[in-house]
């Protein structure tokens, strides 16, 4: 069921024009910067958009100018390891494509920033519901990277999904290992997730 839904929702976001994508990214940035959690945050993880995902690029530029530290995920290159770590990123920094063709920080001399010490994580979505359930691309990278939130229900980091409004569904199936979202920000609204 998840793979069928994933195909349908990916098609929705891929069918948006480049103008719709650009406008949506700017609208999301304006909604995010008004959130109290964003204003307080000093360490923000984001992503490089691909496959029709809504882009956090305008927000990353804004955050860098506002003296916030930004981080991008990097997938481990080892076939035996499916881990994601977060490395410092500046919006002018060069990126290299990973095995999925998504840009990642290169020339890393520093250690990754611990996931537990991030204030906010902006996540890409394939689909979402108002209960904070998220449908990703199926790799489980974010669920593994933030598995510690399942056990101790820590507030940090705040998990914020970014999506086009057309990616919302009434209800998504959920697995025990899924990490729920705290907020979903779309081009139309900010949704505080209802806890199940």
Architecture overview:
- There is one protein chain.
- Helix 2 (18-32) runs parallel beside helix 4 (57-65).
- The two termini are 21 Å apart.
- A seven-stranded mixed β-sheet has the order 3-2-1-6-9-10-11. Strands 4-5 form a two-stranded antiparallel ribbon.
- A hairpin with a 5-residue loop joins strand 4 (95-97) and strand 5 (103-105).
- It has six helices and eleven strands.
- The chain has a single domain (2-192), classed as 3-Layer(aba) Sandwich (Rossmann fold), CATH 3.40.50.
- It has 196 residues and is an alpha/beta fold.
- It is 27% helix and 22% strand.
Q: Write out the strand line-up for the largest beta sheet, numbering strands in chain order.
A: 3-2-1-6-9-10-11
Shape: globular
Mean pLDDT: 88
Question: Which sequence of SSEs, written as H and E, runs from N to C?
Answer: HHHEHEEEEEEEHHEEE
Poorly predicted regions are: none
Tally the helices: 6
CATH architecture descriptor text: 3-Layer(aba) Sandwich
Number of DSSP-assigned strands: 11
Instruction: Write the CATH fold name.
Output: Rossmann fold
Strand percentage lies at 15-25%
Structural class: alpha/beta
How would you sum up the major sheet? 7 strands, mixed
CA(first)-CA(last) distance: 21 Å
> What is the CATH C-level name?
Alpha Beta
């Amino acid at each position: 069921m998840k793979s069928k839904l994933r195909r349908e929702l990916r098609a929705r976001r891929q069918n948006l024009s480049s103008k719709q994508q650009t406008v949506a990214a700017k609208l999301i940035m304006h909604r995010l910067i008004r959130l109290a959690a964003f204003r307080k945050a000093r360490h923000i993880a984001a992503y490089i958009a691909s496959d029709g995902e809504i882009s956090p690029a305008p927000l990353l530029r804004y955050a860098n100018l506002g003296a916030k530290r930004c981080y991008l995920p990097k997938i481990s290159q080892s076939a035996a390891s499916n881990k994601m770590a977060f490395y410092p990123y500046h919006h002018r920094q060069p990126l290299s494509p990973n095995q999925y063709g998504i840009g990642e920080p290169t020339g890393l001399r520093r250690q990754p920033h611990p996931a537990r010490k991030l204030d906010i994580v902006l996540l890409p979505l394939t689909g979402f519901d108002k209960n904070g359930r998220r449908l990703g691309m199926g790799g489980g990278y974010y669920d593994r990277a933030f598995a510690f939130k399942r056990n101790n229900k820590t507030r940090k980091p705040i998990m914020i999904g970014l999506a086009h409004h057309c990616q919302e569904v009434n209800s998504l199936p959920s697995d025990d290992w899924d990490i729920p979202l705290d907020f979903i920000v779309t081009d139309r609204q900010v949704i505080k997730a209802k806890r199940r």
